[in-house]
Amino acid sequence: MNEFVMKLRILMRAELTLFKADAQRRANMALLGAISIGCVFVALIFVNMGLFFRLTDSALDSRAAFILAGGNLALAVVPFLFRRQAKAGPEEQMVREIREMAAEDVSKDLDAVAKEVADIGAGINQVRSGVAAFNSGGMSALMPGVNLVIEMLKKKR
Question: In terms of pTM, does the model score above 0.70?
């Protein structure tokens, strides 16, 4: 049983480690997404400024605003590229393999316990059917003899 508990502890530790790694990866992806969205919003502001300066005939100012907007859009693409490359590392793959091995061992142990319980249930059913057969057939055949012995014991007293 101690070995089974150890396997369960390994399984739970692996699950917790994978959960933490996945949560950290999702948090990093959310942060990179927020940075990208922020850069897009800043680029939109500069596009609006460039259009404003274009409409007010300040061509030099509008050109600078459009250059800044393009730069911010380029910066917005960079975190998305990092997000696409964020994948599980070799350590996480190793933990996944440990989890799979522990889950397989625990599953085998539980199957063995289930088989033992089924065998015990079958044994109980055999005893029950034997007792029922004895009660229905054997007891009725012995009843006249048992009654005779009881009567003899009563007469002796």
Answer: no
